Amino acid sequence: MANIAFISWSVRFYGLSYKLPNVSADNLVSIINDLDTSNLNATQTTLLQNRTQDLASIPIPSSNLTALVFANGSAVTNSSGIQLTTTDEVGEFDQFVTVPGLGSNSSSVRIIETGIANVTGPGNGTIILVPSTGISVVSDIDDVMRITKVYVPNEGLFNSFVQPYVNVPGIPELYAHWNETLPGAAFHYDTTTPVELTRTYVDYLFSNFPLGSLEMRPINISDPSQILEARQNSLLKLFQTFPQRKFVLVGDTSSSTLLSAYPQIAEQFPNQIACIFIRNTSATDSDDKIPFSTSEFKNINNNTWFFYRTADGTSSLTRGPRLSLRDTDARAATADLFNLNITGGQCRNDSVPQNVTFGEQGGILGNNGALGRVALGRVPYAASFVGTAVALVLSLL
């Protein structure tokens, strides 16, 4: 991610210095507690091994890294590259560096390649040159872009580590539509998944959605309560980096951190909010029996936020064979989000009931067809991993 600073670009270099563990394939399959691996096929076994290997990676603290930048196949940096700040005690680095030679500001996103010179293994990356004005889409990933079902613990683990990732119906088409129609469109993907799984998420995201920046959960978080702070920090960095851009924030009701972080950033930067879209997962999946709170939306302009059901006009998480273009157009006409005029300030589809109570909603006794009104305690969960120092909080966070 980069923003223009006078005639040079301020480029953010963000990542993790690590080495893969010397762990047998059998141990990689069994690294996640309470995950049933007895009946996996060959594809599922390979996916599980690849994902757990990344998760069990060993951070390298105090690493000295050198970055190289390339534009149109030619090096922008000289042969000595850019010396990055030494990685911290958990192997992470995160800094902005002014890089000349990347051209002037433009009205659309441009893609630049970068890499780390003095490493073995994958050290390449992508720089997204974001115009100073336009509309940025900030999107959560799990149960917004891909079907995870974090609200069903065992199924959430299985979908995260064993199954091929499956798109939430209509979201690839919606984001492609926004990418084509929103002025100066840019995409920023944000997740509480640990940074060790970056490679898995990058492979999935950029095969299905517009290129964009990716914010993962930092390693140095030991308490689930710190995840909200991480969400807020990533949003704050975006809003401060691009003060002239407006933002579309997309999340879901199964993420308690987003239901707090989005309203809070909207109160802090009201003039930079275009729309806030929250997917009501309980409206399309009867398995979602976890209550959620809408209390923090009480003080937000109600013309800017909208709780939607689906992006493609369907009412469930699954659908049949791939649709023809005519069928896709027909569904788009009934979709909750597709035809909204975001640039013109339209964030709401009046055909979709809201029933927001600004309190605890949903849950076992809630109304799956709209936003329920039951007040039950929140039930976060975490999955522990043998042989690593990380606890993956899929959760409701």
Automatic annotation (TrEMBL):
Name the source's superkingdom: Eukaryota
Q: Which residues form the Phosphatidate phosphatase APP1 catalytic domain?
A: 135-280
Organismal lineage: Eukaryota, Fungi, Dikarya, Basidiomycota, Agaricomycotina
Source organism per UniProt: Trametes pubescens
User: What's the short name of a Pfam family annotated to this entry?
Assistant: APP1_cat
- Single GO MF descriptor: phosphatidate phosphatase activity
Q: What is this protein called?
A: Phosphatidate phosphatase APP1
Identify the InterPro entries for this entry. Answer: APP1_cat, Mg2+_PAP
The UniProt entry's GO CC annotations, sorted and at most eight, read: actin cortical patch
